[in-house]
Predict the structure.
Amino acid sequence: MDRNSCWISLCLVVLATMSYHRTTLAKNITCWELPCRQNRYHFDCCIRNLEIDDGTTIESANFARQQYILLEDSNIYTVSPQLFQLMTDAKMLEIIGGFVPWVYLRPSLTMLTITDSQTKQIFIDPEQKKYRLIWLEVRNITMKELPPNLNQLRDLEHIGLVDSGLEFLVMDQFDGLNKLEELNLSGNNIARIYVNFPMRLPSLRCLQLNDNQLTAIDLSFWHMPELTTFDLSSNQLKYMAHYNSNQFDKLCAIKAERNKWNCKWLEEFLHACFHFRGYGFSERQVECDEDVEWRENCCYGNETDVGYLEYLREMQLI
């Protein structure tokens, strides 16, 4: 049974009472436990087309026994904190579509998924020390920057912020996430990555930065001893600075196709890293035909190219 077939029997019952003569519209929200055992997510509570605006108050809500909640195509404005705080026992929350601009993270959640929603920010309490979140997946929303206090979520194993409008990245915000194994930041508009101090992600195995707007990347402060997959494809990268194999003990391949690699830098990189195996890196690398834009396996320019001079300056060689 798919999710759609469950909605009619699972959806939240919203009882609305209206009073006239300048009284306030109120909605009593009660979430019944109607388990759908054959649904792959086993949602105990499905809330669909819920409207909460400036004139709406939540008088009561029963989420006490609900661990798996789906919030779909709902518009929630001023009372987001109140609504999320009522989900006292929720372990998994999925938000699909609708207008939910602010999501207040409950400590009890182990999984949060937001897809195709008009969500601007996820609020994480810097004073809260008991967050249990393991899985965070956000797709096709507009955030522009990472959620503040992200490194308070010490149990995180997976972060996916995909097609979320991120414009820059401060890697320091991941510092302390020692259990993190997968970090997917693909499909954003990231043009610059900042690292202000040595950053260690001891469990990270997969890092995806593909399909962004990166032109250069400095790896001097990165230490990811378990990293095996590093996807940099479909950017505008000309070089990587301060690559040191000791920082990436298990890295054997970088997905590097569809970039703007400088030919001189690439020659030196491959010579220095003779053990290295990479998709998009080849000993037979040839200079791109100027008439052919964005070929998969070619490089651009030589030692006089502005990209190579930028690299030398970055390495303090000139």
Observations:
- Residues 1-41 have pLDDT under 50 and may be disordered.
- The longest strand covers residues 13-17.
